[in-house]
Hints:
- By secondary structure, this protein is of the alpha+beta class.
- The protein is built from seven helices and five strands; from the N terminus they run αββαααββαβαα.
- The radius of gyration is 16 Å and the shape is globular.
Amino acid sequence: LRRKKIQEALATPPITSGVKLTIRNKSRDFNVYQIPLDCLIYNPYNGRFKSKFKTYEALYGRKLDAEDATDVQIISEFLWKSNEAKNKLTLEDIYEKGQQTYGIVTRDGQIVDGNRRFMILSKLHEKYPTKFEYFEAIILDEDIDTRELIRLETEVQLGTDEKEGYNAIEKYLRVDELIHDFNFAPE
């Protein structure tokens, strides 16, 4: 169902064109579309809250499922509490100006970049359902595996000016994951 809704979003006129993004070492231009919030899910590999996921998994003996409504609430709370003061400011900013920075999503609706913005838009949507209905994002035009998803998310978050900084533990967990779980060379 998510894939179908995303295909429908791709059939609408883009709100921005010509956004450069590197996929599999090839830079390409992408369009940005308005995607209904209800067809998106959090990225479970997001480095910004990896330590929270790992702690939760250790405490409760199970992985969080970004497609389960109860787990979505838990993930949303992780994101909100990661920097509540900044999130309140971002919420006010998005309320006043709308979404200013586009995200990146996969063809099946998984957020590669923009989990915090998505969480904030979802909170605003609960309060103002007709005003905050969409997440503006690049929709990747090919399927990517977990390794490429993590590489892309890392490049976007750590390889550019950071929107909301990763703390030291999150950075080290991401580097360890890239080297040991996904066989990237240390350099």
